[in-house]
Design goal:
This protein is mostly helical and 197 residues long. The chain has helices at 3-18, 23-61, 65-89, 102-118, 120-125, 129-147, 155-193. 82% of the residues lie in helices and 0% in strands. Keywords: Membrane, Transmembrane, Transmembrane helix.
């Protein structure tokens, strides 16, 4: 055994005694997190493509001008949300850490994803709301012209608003829960490294 091997073994033993994770586990965790974020983003991008196709078709086939305008607004909101997803929460491979210690790189990626999830209302949910509202107004106008109903909000709009509200509220809640989980991982790293949050 060389003196370098003795020093390496002594360092590894001190890490285990001190309670820090072995470097291989940290790297494996960083790789797993990267794959998870990349897979999640691919699913989100696929959903954006579906929304772009569907609402682009709606621009052509929906009968009322407000429905067409709302569909254009949703297409624009989808492009904005996809861009923000890439800008705020794209997956960064651990190989991009460069000379940064892998534990600090992992912490930085956790913070980045946590912050994206915490602010999801502003960049992922809100861009769709104006378009949805305008489409609903157009749908209401179509029903008024066909049935001669009064201008009061009908039960169809209330049900649709309830479904949209519950879906978007659930999406926001789920992402806040995920952000809290990431914060716990950040706190664990901070405890290991002696850093403040």
């Amino acid at each position: 055994m060389t003196p370098d091997d003795d020093a390496k073994q002594a360092w590894q033993a001190s890490v285990e005694i001190g309670g820090a994770l072995p470097l291989d586990e940290v790297r494996a965790g960083a790789d797993k997190f990267y794959r998870f974020v990349r897979r999640r983003n691919l699913i989100e991008y696929a959903a954006c493509v579906v929304a772009l196709v569907v609402f682009s078709v709606y621009i052509v086939v929906l009968p009322h001008v407000l429905q067409k305008i709302g569909s254009v607004m949703i297409v624009a909101g989808t492009v904005f949300a996809a861009w923000q997803l890439h800008r705020r929460a794209s997956a960064v491979p651990p190989e991009n850490a460069g000379t940064m210690p892998i534990l600090l790189f992992s912490r930085a990626q956790l913070v980045r994803q946590r912050d994206a999830l915490r602010t999801i209302f502003w960049w992922y949910i809100l861009p769709f709301l104006p378009g949805l509202f305008v489409i609903m107004l157009g749908g209401r106008a179509v029903r008024l012209s066909k049935t001669g109903e009064t201008a009061a909000v009908g039960w169809q709009e209330l049900v649709l608003l309830g479904i949209i509200g519950a879906s978007l509220g659930g999406l926001w809640w789920w992402n806040q829960k995920a952000a809290a989980k990431l914060q716990r991982h950040i706190d664990d790293i901070d405890a290991l490294t002696g850093r403040g949050a």
